[in-house]
Specification:
Number of strands: 11
Radius of gyration: 24 Å
Mean pLDDT: 93
Distance between the termini: 62 Å
Low-confidence stretches: none
Strand content: 5-15%
Structural class: alpha+beta
Length: 443
């Protein structure tokens, strides 16, 4: 399936990929839709800029990057592994356009401060992505229909992992896909860290299609190993950073407090009109598409002067970067948490809004398990004779982290609970609290 080419290729300058190349008219038209342009107003890493000040990049730039990596995959496959006969397991370049559109649009359903908003209001960005693609009211749907009447449903099926060609699905969603490769490189660049760097050029060179999806040639296995380790390091050092998680906690508590006040009819100022459909759990697609990070931040600025002291304080904490502190805990020390909450309450803070538990865990790599709730697509290494071997059976390095969950559980609370002081009225309470903590964890 192909689209009419542009008269002249369009390029976007990009700090990660240098140039992003667009030669298909439908791709350029999708980029110009209001639904896609909205992604300029949603940060890729949510609140991570409170820790890594350069992390101001958006889901718009990431989506273009995923498109570009997928375009390079398609180009390599078409050049080196073109299908010669139906069913030969090689690349059918008629799949190119559905792959490119799926890559470009894979994140179009994300909301403001994506995962925090999603958890609190029960939205599902993947379901909303599919709805944006297939709903006749959207500009995206109108553009996709210029390819064919059923093209929106085809692209949506890639996002849903039900598209019949596993090669296309694995380009966009697998344990090593265009999405993950772009966000690792892009997030590393913008956070100023080196953890997420790996040899993208080499990985693209050793990728090859086969009947069951995408495999990697054996002589390129070390580049794949490097990618797995880079992903592991980014999760530990960037995505799971305790301060980022603290700001996410404050954001969640802030929105939860606003919802409680709305339901009680207790807003001193006008109710936040654009959030009301979400407080009432009765929103339309148009309601959802009106939201972005700027809309929420505007409400937060207004809430700083609300008469409710909890809402005003949480809004100020979020906007002015006053994170909660945290300590790590385990199953063996979790029984101390009720006592710590009581101490926070005794110090004058409502523990419902000023304490929280947060657990962040990641599985760097896992073997395919058909019995799992969300089975992973395993990484296949193709030997010179064409046989396939799962990555961890060939790599000692990957075998060492396969199936091993990494991360921690943390308890969040106001910073003052750990501050040494001799004049504060609550000093005895702070000291009781601090007696539970050693080296950043519960005793």
């Amino acid at each position: 399936m192909r689209d009419d080419p542009l008269a002249r290729e369009k390029v976007f300058r990009d700090p990660v990929h240098n140039y992003i190349h667009v030669s298909d008219r439908v791709i350029l038209a999708l980029i110009d839709t209001p639904e896609f342009q909205r992604l300029r107003r949603i940060k890729q890493l949510g609140v991570a800029n409170y820790v890594f000040q350069g992390a101001e990049h958006t889901r718009f730039t990431h989506s273009l990057g995923v498109y570009e990596i997928t375009r390079k995959m398609c180009e390599s496959f078409a050049t080196n592994f073109p299908s010669r006969a139906p069913g030969d397991g090689l690349w059918d370049d008629n799949e190119r356009l559905v792959a490119l559109c799926s890559a470009l649009l894979h994140d179009i359903g994300h909301g403001p401060y994506s995962h925090t908003f999603e958890h609190l209001f029960g939205t599902d960005h993947e379901a909303i992505t599919r709805r944006i693609l297939t709903d006749p009211s959207t500009a995206v749907n109108a553009v996709l229909k210029t390819v064919s009447p059923d093209f929106p449903e085809q692209v949506a099926s890639v996002i849903a992992h039900t598209y019949p060609n596993p090669q296309v699905v694995q380009m966009i969603s697998s344990q090593i896909d265009a999405d993950r490769m772009d966000y690792l490189l892009r997030d590393a660049y913008h956070t100023g860290t080196n953890y997420g760097l790996f040899d993208l050029t080499r990985i693209l060179r050793v990728m090859r299609p086969y009947a069951g999806g995408i495999a990697y040639e054996a002589d390129g296995m070390h580049a794949v190993e490097d990618y797995i380790v880079s992903r592991f390091q980014m999760y530990q050092q960037v995505y799971f950073h305790p301060v980022s998680r603290s700001m996410e906690t404050i954001l969640a508590k802030l929105l939860a407090r606003a919802k409680v006040l709305y339901e009680a009819g207790a807003f001193a100022q006008d109710a936040p009109r654009l959030l009301v459909p979400f407080f009432e759990h009765d929103f339309t697609l148009a309601d959802y598409l009106r939201l972005d990070d700027g809309v929420l931040n505007t409400y937060f600025t207004a809430w700083c002067t609300e008469s409710d002291p909890i809402l005003a304080d949480l809004a100020g904490r979020f906007l002015n970067r006053r994170p909660f502190k945290s300590v790590s805990f385990t199953a063996a020390t979790a029984d101390q948490l009720p006592a710590l909450r009581q101490l926070v309450a005794a110090a004058g803070f409502d523990p419902a809004y000023y304490t929280a538990e947060n657990d962040s865990f990641d599985l760097p790599y896992d073997q395919y398990d058909p019995e799992a709730a969300n089975p992973k697509t395993q990484i296949e290494i193709m030997q010179p004779d064409g046989t396939l071997s799962e990555l961890s059976t060939q790599s000692r390095l990957v075998a060492a982290i396969t199936g091993r969950v990494s991360g921690d559980k943390r308890f969040y609370f106001p910073k003052v609970m750990l501050e040494p002081t001799s004049t504060d009225l609550f000093t005895p309470i702070y000291r009781q609290f601090q007696a539970h903590v050693v080296n950043g964890r519960l005793k």
